[in-house]
């Protein structure tokens, strides 16, 4: 066991860390609580209480952030609710904590192995943001169409169900909203937003929404129907048993009673019921207005909350993607470095140089950079000569793209070699890359000022429509470059030169 305070290895039976004095009993208690909350989260996840599972797993990580099992399960729960970015973040953190023998690596590899699925998830998030924007602009119909398409592609996106249900509630399409919210409840039974929206639908419709399976609901309806039939039969029996009653009355008395009843009823309606009914209608209208105003305010607040969550989700997505890209680049650099080491040990200079050129030293540790520098220093000259020979050969074979690639890498090792610069400039010229050709010819002028080489380079720049720039006067390197250039010209005069397609001479 490692001490939580100083990371030292200690015996599990110790009460205090012998190195820093930390109370190991507290650490064991924290680990025990973390495992307990993990077990509770696992139980809730198994019965699809995903919101409860997320709460328990977060508590588990508060007590022990190194609990790999809890972090991996939290990522799975996030992924089940459609939060792919949050899931990926948890798995990346888990992999960084324990790089070896971690199932999070398999989860990440599966996502990376299906770029189409990952791209689809990203597209659904973008479409969700667009639908949310449409809701703010008052285009609920367009937003509803987009959300239906989003949910067909990503049926686990609970936030999409919530927003679509909210649109139907605003349109007073409560049964449609109820149907959508029940789909969301099948993904996560205890989601607070889902339950809050269902409560609003139940209040507006006066019908209690049942989240039980259909077979249990059918059983309840059968029992209610049976009870209703029994009640109707009893009522019918009572009606048969009850004897009729008769009352003797004259014809005129009957008419008079009817007339008086009608008059009294009209007066009651006119003086009592009419004004009260109007007041009730006015009061109900006022209550409806207040209720709808509160509902609209609540919906606006919920939309604002959803937008905040979307913004946070986008930031998490970008951060996770950056982490994944950085990890991939680092892995590629280390793999190429290992290839270079193997080739170097085997004495294969060509493979060693090719592997080293694919290594990004910014991604290497101090120890790895030292290995790279050692190998690079040892084979630098061989790398330069090989790249130079390959570039010259490609140029002579009119393979100008290959020549540019090899000669550019050779120039990075030694930027003062005339053959490399001259062939590279002519290769750029042959491919129509005038800007790079002029820039490379200018490098020759700067490297060999006052020489025949500089004169030929300036002539090439003028032919390409550029203006050669003279190097700064008084540079001490001018004399040295001139002497070296003269010596190089003398040496090259015996070796022979080949002609370019335009008649210019190149070594």
Percent of residues in helices comes to over 70%
Distance between the termini: 68 Å
Order of helices and strands: HHHHHHHHHHHHHHHHHHHEE
CATH homologous superfamily (4th level) name of the domain at 382-506? Tetratricopeptide repeat domain
| Rounded mean pLDDT score | 78
What would CATH call the class of the domain at 382-506? Answer: Mainly Alpha
Provide the CATH architecture of the domain at 382-506: Alpha Horseshoe
Over all CA atoms, what is the radius of gyration?
Answer: 41 Å
User: How are strands sequenced across the largest beta sheet?
Assistant: 1-2
Shape: elongated
Described by its quaternary structure, the protein is single chain
- Beta strand %: under 5%
Task: Find the structural class using helix and strand composition.
Answer: mainly alpha
CATH topology of the domain at 382-506: Serine Threonine Protein Phosphatase 5, Tetratricopeptide repeat
Low-confidence parts, pLDDT < 50 over ≥5 residues?
233-249, 473-507
Q: Main β-sheet: number of strands, strand sense, barrel status?
A: 2 strands, antiparallel
State the helix count.
Answer: 19
How many β strands by DSSP? 2
